[in-house]
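Collaboration report, partner site 2.

Our partner group contributed sequences for two proteins of shared interest, and the home lab folded both. The records are reproduced in the order in which they were received, starting with the first partner submission.
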Amino acid sequence: MKKLIIINGPNLNLLGKREPQIYGSLTFKEFFETIKEKYPQVSLEHYQSNVEGELINKIQDVGFSYDGIILNAAAYTHTSVGIGDAVAAIETPVVEVHISNTFNREDFRHQSYVAPNAKGIIVGFGLQSYELAIQSFLK
């Protein structure tokens, strides 16, 4: 059984409330329950923090023992050299995920410090971006 973790960064705890025209009306908890049911062959966990150092600690904690990390570092994607360095330092493959199409947004969101060390990037498919990342680990 594949062991995967979804790590979400700042403000993703507000899914379902925050800008529903961009992020939808489902909470992440509701969505997470549906994907756990849809992928019973995967041991799937979830972690969220608004704090950069906590995200780095989690990446390091799981980065040598899990089969995959699905990382939505949110705004830290575009600002955190530390998160980029943490992804570079681990052995577990990372798929960078974004709910919105970051290339349709402000110019600063076009830069990613995660991408150079990620297995791949999935952007702009709403919450389905997470499912596509799960599927990438199952192939």
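Second partner submission, folded after the first:
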Amino acid sequence: MDLGSATSLSMQCTCGAFKARLERPRNALRVVCYCRDCQSYSHYLTTYAPLKLDQHGGTEVIALAPEHLKLEQGAEQLRCISLSAQGTYRWYTHCCGSAIAVTPRQARLAHVSIAASALRDAGVDVEAAFGPLQVVANRASAHGNALPRPTKQSLFILLYGMGLLLQRSTGRWRENALLQPGTWQPIVPVHVIERTQRQRLLALAEHRPHTRSRIVLRW
């Protein structure tokens, strides 16, 4: 989705110690993901705060290029975990355990999924800013009947993927506030959780699937 009229959107953690903004967030994708990893991650964050999943176990994110994310305050509050040695980077705040973003291990993918809750905590009307949901991912892992697949979902994914390829080809993937310039490693140490803890989190996310989906996306 092209948000050419939007110049900047605020985001923050629940307590307000961390603040950031999305500058001209073009080619954004509004997604709800029901994968077990996102559900497990939400259970991990319950040591800080209650779960922020929808009634079917979904997590809402805004996917866009990292160049649009600008840190403003409280970067020292950021923490990063991975659910496995090869898993994605999951960013949250130490102060109040707010989910902030998910990024791939491969920096050249030029992709970041911003937690919609971090935008709402800053007073952003997510639907007004980004429009209706465009992708409902991993519906097979939902609890009960997940949201229906939006019309033209495959087209939205294709257009978004083309935008990521453009980021990579132009070198703009290097503009990433969550990575150290030159090394392209996360700006904070990454904690890979232990296998036993991951198994416990997966057990909390166990369910009986009621729907099926051919699309599997990792945020």
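Feedback sent to the partner group on the second submission included the following. The chain has one domain: 8-145+174-204. The domain at 8-145+174-204 is CATH 2.170.150.70 (Metal Binding Protein, Guanine Nucleotide Exchange Factor; Chain A).
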